[in-house]
């Protein structure tokens, strides 16, 4: 049967930048194998399938797939799907919706911006926590084709692992020059990161309005490099709170990503600290519709 779909570029307000997303709007009747095959066909970092809700008070139930596997939660699919549903629902007012994802309920605030774009932010469905030990600096550096001396800046002196639904190894590097040299080595990436995404970040930025510059590699998910990683930004909230670089109170953090890929993206992370810990956080950004059509499946 024919099923409607749309593609969007997420964490950007300009087409052909940001992180591409496909959303299949009428996924009822598709089994897991069919969804995975469709995700491979689109070959975007993630593809979302919209299904009937378990609770009619919620807007939609989502299943999220990379080209290689299903995810319980992901950031840019949540933002992009929330924007698309807001456009479908119509109106220009800011509204709140709840999405059902495998991780649980995800609350979103959606604001349309014209007929084919908008912005959304979601409250973290799971607070960021540490996620275990990491590999040694030499192993991590070798997997990224860097030298151990490239790692670390300021108070971010070593790699650490955090999760807010998806686990990432966060690797601080000294600046944009080192960031540009990152090239994941497939023969060494598993030893360094296992199933985790490798989130490489620095405090030197291309845009003076941003606080961090990032890249993310996830070969096991079928993603050599991701243009913008909302679930990593969510996990980053815990790392920032633990770093001692932020005082208690409200903070707005802008993260640029995708520049090395020619797909510049901007992620807005908002977090509230109390007692030196992150007590709440949200991730948001813009999205714009690129294509609409039908897929036969």
Q: Please trace the helix and strand order, writing H or E for each element.
A: EEHEEEHEEEEHEEHHEEEHEEE
Write down the domain tally. 2
- How does the helix and strand content classify structurally? alpha+beta
CATH architecture assignment name of the largest domain = Roll
**Unreliable runs:** none
Task: Work out the helix count.
Answer: 6
At the first level of CATH, what is the class of the largest domain? Answer: Alpha Beta
The main β sheet shows up as: 8 strands, mixed, barrel
- Return Rg in Å: 18 Å
Mean pLDDT: 97
Explained architecture:
The structure is a single chain. The chain is α+β, with helices and mostly antiparallel strands and 297 residues long. It is 20% helix and 40% strand. The chain has helices spanning 32-42, 75-89, 137-143, 176-181, 189-193, 230-243, and strands spanning 2-10, 19-24, 46-51, 60-65, 70-71, 95-101, 104-112, 117-123, 129-130, 160-163, 167-172, 197-202, 212-218, 223-226, 249-257, 265-274, 277-296. It has an 8-stranded mixed β-barrel with strand order 1-2-3-4-6-7-8-17. The protein is globular and about 55 Å long. The mean pLDDT is 97.
Gist of the model:
With 297 residues, the chain is of the alpha+beta class. The chain has helices at 32-42, 75-89, 137-143, 176-181, 189-193, 230-243, and strands at 2-10, 19-24, 46-51, 60-65, 70-71, 95-101, 104-112, 117-123, 129-130, 160-163, 167-172, 197-202, 212-218, 223-226, 249-257, 265-274, 277-296.
């Amino acid at each position: 049967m024919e099923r409607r779909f749309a593609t969007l570029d997420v964490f950007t307000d300009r087409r052909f930048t940001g992180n591409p997303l496909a959303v299949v709007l009428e996924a009822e009747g598709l089994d897991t194998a069919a969804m995975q095959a469709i995700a491979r066909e689109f070959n975007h970092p993630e593809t979302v399938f919209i299904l009937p809700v378990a609770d009619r008070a919620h807007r939609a139930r989502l299943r999220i797939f990379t080209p290689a596997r299903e995810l319980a939660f992901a950031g840019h699919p949540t933002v992009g799907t929330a924007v698309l549903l807001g456009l479908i629902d119509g109106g220009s007012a800011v509204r709140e919706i709840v999405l059902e994802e495998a991780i649980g309920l995800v609350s979103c605030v959606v604001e349309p911006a014209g007929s084919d774009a908008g912005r959304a932010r979601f409250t973290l469905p799971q607070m960021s926590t540490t996620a275990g030990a990491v590999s040694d600096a030499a192993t991590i550096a070798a997997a990224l084709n860097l030298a151990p001396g490239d790692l670390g800046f300021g108070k971010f002196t070593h790699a650490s692992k955090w999760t807010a639904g998806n686990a990432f190894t966060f690797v601080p590097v000294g600046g944009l020059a080192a960031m540009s040299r990152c090239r994941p080595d497939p023969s060494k990436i598993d030893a360094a990161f296992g199933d985790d995404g490798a989130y490489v970040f620095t405090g030197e930025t291309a845009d003076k309005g941003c606080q961090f510059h990032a890249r993310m590699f996830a070969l096991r998910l079928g993603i050599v490099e991701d243009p913008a990683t909302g679930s990593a930004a969510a996990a980053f909230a815990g790392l920032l709170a633990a770093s001692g670089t932020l005082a208690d109170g409200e903070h707005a953090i802008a993260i640029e990503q995708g520049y090395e890929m020619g797909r510049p993206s901007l992620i807005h992370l908002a977090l509230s600290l109390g007692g030196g810990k992150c007590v709440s956080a949200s991730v948001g950004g813009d999205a714009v519709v690129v294509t609409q059509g039908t897929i036969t499946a």
